[in-house]
Amino acid sequence: MDIRIEGLTKRYGQQAAVDGIGLHVRPGEVLGFLGPNGAGKTTTMKMICGLLAPDAGSIEVGGRSVLTDPQAVRRHIGYLPENNPLYEDMPVLDHLRFAARLQGLSPERIRERLGDMVRVCGLDAEKHKRVGELSKGYRQRVGLAQAMVHDPEVLILDEPTTGLDPNQIVEIRELIKEVGRAKTVIFSTHILPEVEATCDRILIINRGRIVADGSPADLRRQAQGRPLVRVRIEDAPPGAAAEALRTLPGVEQVETANDGALLLQTADGGSGARQVFRLCVDRGWTLTELHSPGSRLEDIFRDLTLN
């Protein structure tokens, strides 16, 4: 089941949390939704689920409008919010049974789906415990099982690995990959290697607008198409480093990132790096960082969201 968004906008006062974005998520696609805190990820996901009304734009899930037919759309969506609200006094099976009844499943279908969720989410050893007795990792598994218990075609996960240890992150990642073979999945995270290992496609949002959209390989090719050199120089007088760098052959533009590093747009990334190195040697400055962003997803993310 696909998701189509056009001109989606949500404002809080004068601030646009989501600013006219549009995207198409294809059936069976696993989309990683990235962005710094406050970029608009959670707001967008809540609007797709029909939990928050947009100020403008349209959202369609499987051809149905979230704005005009929200109840019909919600039957096809499983949603795991970031804080994963669970009833801690309920045993795991009772919790999942309660969620299934809320989704309108028949008693026969509930029995079938509970068995499937226990198996798929690895809950067999914990299924008779109360939710409050579970570890963080198993609570996330229960949250995923609750989101999937009605067998939705679309699964939306907001920071599903928050607070998990590395072993638990790998387990949830593998579970998302398995689920993604049969469902359309959107999930947000701050763990960039997790996105590369899990997603077919990456979407980066910053200040309410989409700044990048494509596979990890696509984003790397885009970054390499506009060579940058990231530089950090110590011992130089204020402003002197940027001024000197602008005079180098092949350097087209010099900007200062929020963290104080200098970003050089060059005609040739490798040539620019060599020129910077020679400059620092000649001036007696200490060069503490020199590399070309684009080789790692972290570099691409920082380049797109720091400025």
- Helix percent reads 25-40%
Largest sheet, if any? Answer: 6 strands, mixed
Low-confidence stretches: none
CATH fold assignment of the largest domain: Rossmann fold
Layout: helices, strands, pairs:
Layout: E1 3-12, E2 15-25, E3 30-34, H1 41-48, E4 56-61, E5 64-65, H2 70-74, E6 77-80, H3 92-102, H4 107-120, H5 136-148, E7 154-158, H6 166-180, E8 184-188, H7 192-198, E9 201-206, E10 209-214, H8 216-224, E11 228-234, H9 240-246, E12 251-256, E13 262-266, H10 269-283, E14 286-291, H11 297-305
Parallel strand pairs: 3-8, 3-9, 6-7, 7-8
Antiparallel strand pairs: 1-2, 1-4, 4-5, 9-10, 11-13, 11-14, 12-13
Helix pairs in contact: 3-4
What does this structure look like?
The chain is an alpha/beta fold and 307 residues long. The protein folds into two domains: 3-214, Rossmann fold (3-Layer(aba) Sandwich); 228-291, Alpha-Beta Plaits. The chain is built from eleven helices and 14 strands. Strands 6-7-8-3-9-10 form a six-stranded mixed sheet, sandwiched between helices. It has a four-stranded antiparallel sheet with strand order 2-1-4-5. Strands 12-13-11-14 form a four-stranded antiparallel sheet, with helices on one face. Strand 7, helix 6 and strand 8 form a beta-alpha-beta unit. The longest helix is centred in the middle third of the chain and has 15 residues, at 166-180. The radius of gyration is 23 Å and the shape is elongated.
